[in-house]
Amino acid sequence: MSAGKILVTNATILTMDDAETTASSLLIDGGRVVAVDPSEEQAKGAAIVDMGGKTVVPGLIDAHTHMEMIAYGWSIAVDVKPPLVKSIDDMVERLAEKAATLASGQWVLGQGMHYQNQHIAEGRYPNRWDLDRVSTEHPVVVRFSFHINVFNSKALEVLGVDKNTPDSDGGYLERDADGVPNGVSNDMWHALNAPDWPYEEVGPALVNAQASFLENGVTAITEFTLFRGGVDAYLEMERRKDLKIRVALYPKVPSVCPIEDALSGKMSARFADADPSRLKLGGMKMFIDGGLTSRAAAMYEPYWDSDLKGDLSFEPKVFSEIVGKLHGAGYQICVHAIGDLAQDVVLDAFAALPERKAANGATHRIEHAGNCLWTDERAQRFADLGVLPVPQPPFIFTTAAGYRKNLGPVRGADVFPMRRMVMDQKFAVPGNSDAIGIHPKQHVPMFGIWAMVTREMNDGETLTDGENLDVMTSLRMYTRFAARSIGREHEIGSLEPGKFADFVVFDDNPLTVPADMLRDMMPNQTWIGGEQVFARDATKASQTKEVYIPA
Asked: How open is the CA angle 184-187-190, to the nearest 5 degrees?
């Protein structure tokens, strides 16, 4: 339903247009911006919304997230993250409590955090025998990222995993001295055919996750769907009009979207009845390697204190052929590539294309490029090819310390060079979270901005490498740059005539508050298409608080 004619006034409006104009009023009609600082004649007949001197910024955009995984992590899984749990025993106890409430044979899912082995007493991840103490009747799995999943013996039995189960391309099973899998799986979720939860559980969980995005000022997301039921869940949400946030969905090829479904138009046809301003098929997501958290990212040299170098998920020639076909079909292609070898293989594939833009006008992207292993030579190649690197700002806090330990003192010394990438090398890096439910604030744009401004890490240290960004540049990343990265700059990302009236209202101006306030800064209101979709209790609007996590 479109909003009527509205005049937003008495505000400091950061329009985030090319000139980064500041205005005091905004005229909206039919859900879109009509004029900035309109004349009295233009504003005649408008309903007046007096913002009382508050600050208005364009709706914040998360250009790489997993609201679907957050739904799992917050509403379906058992929380086994520190500081709630301090040991494997604590983890087992919480999971066993859940198992006791389920019928025999039902799966028990636990949610941990990145590098949890570095934050609990035993200094390691649990294994199958630890999780067998939870239950021998229930299959149990604990997710520490998308990449690291630990199964108990019953789960391995259900999945048919034994000593003869091969490692997958780009992933591996950890094994004991006799070659028997110990339950720790690295980048093999889909290879093991691990289960999705039914829409009856995922759908309501998605609605809860969406509420937290909205209350933190996120009006649009790029959803990289990693589970087969995710597409169904989003389409059903849109059909029921439960989907308030704008979603550009990129299913994972081939495990979520088979290549033939992408090329035949079968996947596109599923979105034919959806409102494209609310839910659209944005492009396709691929993986060329695994995670650095799981030491499965494909590297030229081994990880620190290890013989592991990771592996590619596809042979380079096969990967290049798939990229060529998807590009030929008009899709924007976003490729997960963390290792330096993996990034070079993807760049080779993009270099073989006649040009690097998709039908939506956006350039192809390499997700996680720039988190680490960023060299001037590789940066120049990105620039020459017109390929966009997409590092994750909140990882500075949640993950950088673990990256440094996995890479060692030399390669790990240069992580998340945000100032170099954005200010010096002029990449329009989009604000994004890659949030999967491991941290209560990872999906919060202001938390990501705080991380870029302060460069604090979760081990108590602060990166003192001079790679800090200012707040205005960081806001640009979560607005204009994020919209550009998915081919939506013509409709969202700034408050300009013709664009959707998506905006966020803060009690204080993010540009003038002390840096420490940014971490917990939350909107007073969130508007999408000229309609208020979230309003905080006025008596609590200026109080900082932890983000709401659904029970």
From this structure: 105
pLDDT at 203: 87
Query: Which pLDDT does position 549 carry in this prediction?
Result: 26
HSE of 406, CA atoms in CB hemisphere, 13 A: 25
What is the residue-wise DSSP string for 125-174? ---HHHHHTT-SSS-EEEESSSSEEEE-HHHHHHHT--TTPPPPTT-EEE
Q: Which stretches in the chain have pLDDT values below 70?
A: 1-3, 538-551
Q: What is the pLDDT of residue 257?
A: 97
- At 307 the pLDDT is 94
How far is CA 544 from each of CA 109, 142, 478, rounded to the nearest angstrom?
Answer: 31, 31, 21
Reduced 3-state DSSP string for 230-271: HHHHHHHHHHCCCCCCEEEEEEECCCCCCHHHHHHCHHHHCC
> How close are the terminal C-alpha atoms of the chain, in Å?
31
Residue 315 token pair: 């042979």
- Of 478, 507, 508, which Cα lies nearest the Cα of 494? 478
Tokens for 242, please give them.
């439960």
pLDDT at 3: 67
Backbone conformation region of residue 166, classed left if phi is above 0, alpha if psi is from -120 to 50, else beta:
beta
Q: Which of 153, 129, 146, 156 is nearest to 77 (CA)?
A: 146
What local confidence, expressed as pLDDT, does residue 288 receive?
97
The torsion defined by the Cα of 113, 116, 118 and 120, in degrees rounded to 10, comes to 130
Q: What is the C-alpha to C-alpha distance for residues 476 and 234, in angstroms, rounded to an integer? A: 28
Give pTM, 2 decimals: 0.93
